[in-house]
Design goal:
Helices cover 47% and strands 17% of the residues. By secondary structure, it is α+β, with helices and mostly antiparallel strands. Helix 11 packs across helix 13, helix 12 packs antiparallel against helix 13 and helix 13 runs antiparallel to helix 18. It starts with a helix and ends with a helix.
Length: 720
Amino acid sequence: MPSAPRVLGFFAATVLILSLAGSSAGDLLASGSQLSGWLGYGTTFPDRALVLKAPAGASVTTRTLHVSENGTPVNALTVTPLSHAGPGDFGVELVIDRNTSMKGIPLASAYSAARRVAGKLGGQQQLGLITFDGTASVALGLTSDTAKIFHTLASLPRTGAGRDIAGAYTLALSQLAAAKVATGAVIMLSDQAPSTLLGVARSSSIAQAAATQGVAIVTATLIGQPGTQQQAGRAPITTLGSHPAQPVAQAAAVSAPQAVSSEYQRLIAGGYVARYTSPLNPGVVVNVLAHLDGVGPNVNLTYTVPASPVTSTPGSSSLSGGGSGSSSGSGSGSGSGSGAGSGAGSGSGGSAGGGSSGSGSSHPPPLRIPPDALATSPRLSSTPFSTVPVSPTATPPTASFWDSTPAILGAGILGGGLLALAIWLAFAGKRDKRAVQRRVSSFIPGSAEVVRDGRTYTLLTGSGLERFLARRRWWPVFAENVEVARIRRGPVDLVKRWAAGAAVVAVFAMLLLSSVLIALLVLGVWPSVMRVAIRRAARKQRERFNEQLPTHLQDLSGAMRAGRSFVGGLSTVAASADEPISSELERAVTDEQLGRPLEDALSAVAKRMQSEDMEQVALVAALNRRSGSNVAEALDRVAEGARERMDLRREIKALTGQARLSNLVLSALPGVLLLAINVIAPQYAHPLLHTTMGIVLLIIGAGMVLMGWRVMSGIVKVEV
């Protein structure tokens, strides 16, 4: 079996393009030697949050970081690294494509990357999951509960048609906004480049929305590369420069999940959230100055304090090195700065001196997306959505049968019909007012049978369901087993309740396992399961009857020696016996009192309880009525034979116990393994449950297992 990296690489290589919204977002990724930052999102004045990016090796603490507003030092300053974020500091939304083209290895690789990112969470970092096909939906709200996160990422979702990528981005940004985190990131995992699906205009609007919230956008595009065994499981890592024309930095190739987790770590490396309380009053323009000892230049921010406290939106900033920009925090304002460096820059986070970025590390203004940006080479990553195009030689995944229109239509009609049938069976039946009449009619000759044209017809009464079931060949045996099992409810009521329960279980199985096949399997096997359960309960009652019979036959023999008649002895034994023999003997005595011959009543008990010994008792009763005999002695002989037969049954049961257990284990093993694989590694069970050939093989395998169970059951079942 090929290794996991080789299999993953054969189907998908990941090209990662990382862009933060605006020029300051680009600086956040770069490992520069200057301090950068912007006003954080989700605070209410006078509480403020400042997101900072410090150079590698810099010490950012409350002693080395100095923050002031209009020259006045701020109050209650706290500094928290993003790697150990506190509540409300950082959130990441994983957005995973579940289009049918992602089915199989690509989707499994995307979820593997998501689990790698979840494993890198530290502190109170929050993670959420959004999946999308034709519609986007929240699979997991933002949370820092790792157990809940890994439970959600343990199973793959169902795939579907369409791609609402714009809706997925919008939903991710709205989730981050609702969580009121200071800063965050959106990681998109798909096998299609977002630029090919969105276009320039929609890409620009999404970038602007991300810029407003200070959210980084990460795009990982899975691209099929069959035949490239040397690069199996590898993908080039690319990072976005701060200027559209700046070339992409090329790094070593790593596995697709590792690429995403590495970019996530690099995203938060050196990031800090400084929280403080503003010392100023509402209604003023505020200049925020952040200085880190030994690192320059300073971060200079400007925002306007509103007259009434509201939740803040990010502001803008500029380095003390040239450039100008505008911002709106909890209000509006502008920021500017001056310092060393040649040249000047203007516009949204402008550039300064020598062609390098001299813009401040303010909260990023809207991303600059030139009209021709998406048409440039992928090696000049000028937008957050540029990526390497999908390989034209990639083999598209085969479509699932369950995704086809006939399958969906048929499953909908079948599910709706079965649900309606279950509701009707459970609630539509009314109590028959003629139940007593039907019960008594069995004792009236000619009431149940009519002879016409030389044939005997049985009159069927009751509801339509009862008449329908009465025509089935298995129904008389089932009704008898229900009676023998001492179940309080009647057989028809039992069928209704089992049907309703099976419909509910099928619906839940389809929703939880995302497989129509499992639901159809539940609906197909419930009648057999019901009959097996009732048959097992009846068999236990019959075994108890046969175990009790020898002892009570000796009691009957003693009663007859004491001078009682056969019927009187049966009444005495029935009064002192336990169930089920008590009710069976009472029924035989009642039938005899109603005029039925005693041997016929005892034969009916023997047939109902499947007891050969009881048939011998009926024969003794017939001989006693016709010619007279020593009934007590005959009953003693019958009791001795019954006891010997019961001992032999127990011995055979003990000798075949291991074989019966082996039959149970071998028959249940395939189903248990399939369920375990579907939970542990859903991608391996996916072809078996979602392709036509897999379903056919599953049905054949189930039939072979059933035949094996029947054969082994026949071997270990010895008639005595």
